[in-house]
Give the backbone structure.
Amino acid sequence: MHSLFKKLLLHHPELQAEVADLNGFVEPPRTYPPGAVIGRNRSVPGAVFVISDGWVLASHYLANGASQVVDIRLPGDFLYDQGNLGSSVGLEYVAVTEVRLREFRLSTEALLRATSIRLASAMMAEVTRDRQVITQHLVNVGRRDPAVRTAHMLLELAVRAEKVGLGDAHRFRFPLTQSMLADALGMSAIHLNRVLRKLRESKLVSFQNSMVTFEDFDAITRFAGFERGYLE
């Protein structure tokens, strides 16, 4: 089952028939290699893509070339923009792993008009969750202690990965490099290395073979002050 459909049915199980109808609105998947910039040549103005497989960094670029990772997109997440996807407002999507995308044949507005009110509301709820995630990332960088913000980000990614079958809340595959995670957390790679060592020595989390494991899930949840309601 498509990752987007898994997410929609997880939150709205009553929409099974309507969610299945979304297959008629999406193009065959396109594949992007790691490091590729996504969405440069979209076919529909204001198009929306959904990730079938793979992880994507969403970064905001400044005029001087500096950038900031504002979100990490997983399977089932949307990639969208009001204008030229990936470039018009300095937002760029870059594949972390090999990524498969499917593009909706209609623009966002046309797609919402073509679906039932219930399904359109469910899809808009997914967009709202995207915004809530970015809000948490802003709070992370601005107000949380470096160790707390790191633990909070890892817990969030674990919950999001669990929703689309990529692990569970206690253990999940983590393909990001240390420098990518540092950028998302607003700190240097050297500082992040010290933070990760502190979390490991506190027996809260371990990293091995691109897997993150929470050694004491309750303890790290308390440490991070993590409440998953914004992801629900």
